[in-house]
């Protein structure tokens, strides 16, 4: 596999919803890292796609991320079961995923995207579950099936590639 490329990537934000986040282990840190990814994506012209699982029950996306990009509403845990989700991700670019829960909606979506022969990159410090062990098992499973596991900083600096990038200063400030 090659380095991540801002020109071919899409950032996918899965179910960062207001009624769910208080129950997620280390949820505040997750949201902070997802916000870093969104802000970097905006500075580097990386498209962002978001999902919301049953928003009538789980609420909308948390305010920190609410304006990040278009939202696909779904009832299936696997985002790929929603035709609009796959249509929005048409093409063969790499998909950088963050969200929750790692062992349910993120995990099922990742496994389905891999079945669709997509390059899937999961941001370990921007996904979560209620129980830490559920997240760990989900990460191992996704990796076994072909997902790449990375961190927020890895994504941001691979998207930049060089300190000579015109957006280096504003993007690198997101990490500090």
UniProtKB/TrEMBL annotation:
Transmembrane segments: none
Boundaries of every Isochorismatase-like domain copy: 10-153
InterPro entries: Isochorismatase-like_dom (IPR000868), Isochorismatase-like_sf (IPR036380), Isochorismatase_domain (IPR050993)
Pfam family, one: Isochorismatase
PANTHER family in the record: HYDROLASE, ISOCHORISMATASE DOMAIN-CONTAINING PROTEIN 2
Protein name from the UniProt record: Nicotinamidase-related amidase
Organism of provenance: Bosea lathyri
